[in-house]
Design goal:
The chain is of the alpha+beta class. It has a single domain, classed as Aminopeptidase (3-Layer(aba) Sandwich). The chain has an 8-stranded mixed β-sheet. Helix 1 crosses helix 3. The longest helix is centred in the middle third of the chain and has 16 residues. The protein starts with a strand and ends with a helix. Bound molecules: coenzyme A (COA). Coenzyme A (COA) binds next to strand 5, helix 4 and helix 5.
C-alpha cells in the first residue's frame, strides 16, 4: 500500500475488474486514454493475467479515494514502463469513477506517484504522454511540477480530426528543489 492522506495506491485485485470494464467503456473516461473500442470482461481478464507477468514495479495500481470515512476504489495508475539503466519511467493515471473528478484526488495521486518513483524506485526522470485537448489532466501535471518537453504533431486521431500529443516530464532534481522550496 502506498498511503496518502485522501488517496491510497494498492495492488489491483481480480474483484476490481468489473469496475474497470464499466469505466473503460465510458466514452468520457476513454477520451483521455488510448483505448477507443468497446471492451469486455474477458478482455480485462486477459489484461489482468498479463499484468501478473509484468515486473512488480510496472504493474498497475488501484486508486482508492477517501470518501467521508470510506475508502472507495475509483481508478488506476502506475508506471507503464521503466528503463532501469537510464532510470526513467512513464506514468499513467485514470480516475474512472467520474463522481471523484475535480476534487483534487488526481493531483494527490500524481504527487504520490512522483514520491514513489523518486524515493522508492530511485528514478531520475518521470514522464508521460497526454493529448493536447485533455486540459484537466495537463493542469494536474503542471501543478505537480511536470514541464512540457515536446509535442508530437497530429499524433492522435479523435472525433474526426488529428490532435497533438504532449510529452511532459519532471526530473528528480526539479522535484527535490520544489519540495525544498515548499518546506
Ligand atoms: C485527468 C484526471 C486524472 C484528473 O483527476 P482529477 O481528480 O479530476 O484532478 P484534480 O481534481 O486534482 O484537478 C483537475 C483540475 O483540472 C480542472 N479541469 C477539469 N476539466 C477541465 C477542462 N476541461 N479544462 C480546464 N480545466 C479543467 C479542474 O477544475 C481541476 O482544477 P482545480 O483543482 O484548479 O479546480 C481525471 O480526470 C481522469 O482520470 N480522467 C480520465 C482519464 C484521463 O484522461 N487520464 C489522463 C490521461 S493522460
Amino acid at each position: 500500500m502506498i498511503q496518502g492522506e485522501r488517496v491510497r495506491l494498492r495492488a489491483v485485485e481480480r474483484e476490481d475488474l468489473p469496475r474497470f470494464v464499466a469505466w473503460f467503456n465510458d466514452p468520457e473516461v476513454r477520451r483521455g486514454l488510448t483505448s477507443h473500442l468497446p471492451m469486455s470482461q474477458a478482455d480485462e481478464e486477459k489484461w489482468y493475467e498479463g499484468q501478473l507477468r509484468q515486473p512488480p514495479a510496472e504493474r498497475a495500481l488501484a486508486i482508492d479515494v477517501l470518501d467521508g470515512e470510506q475508502w472507495v476504489h475509483a481508478g488506476s495508475c502506475g508506471f507503464l514502463g521503466i528503463n532501469w539503466k537510464d532510470r526513467r519511467g512513464e506514468v499513467g493515471i485514470s480516475i474512472g469513477d467520474k463522481r471523484y473528478w475535480g476534487k483534487g484526488y488526481g493531483t494527490e495521486v500524481m504527487r504520490l506517484l512522483l514520491q514513489h518513483g523518486f524515493e522508492t524506485l530511485n528514478l531520475n526522470r518521470i514522464y508521460l504522454r497526454v493529448f493536447a485537448y485533455n486540459e484537466g489532466a495537463i493542469k494536474v501535471y503542471r501543478r505537480v511540477g511536470f514541464q512540457e518537453e515536446g509535442r508530437l504533431r497530429e499524433d492522435h486521431y479523435f472525433e474526426g480530426r488529428y490532435w497533438d500529443t504532449l510529452i511532459m516530464g519532471i526530473l528528480r532534481r526539479d522535484w527535490q528543489a520544489a519540495r525544498e522550496g515548499e518546506g
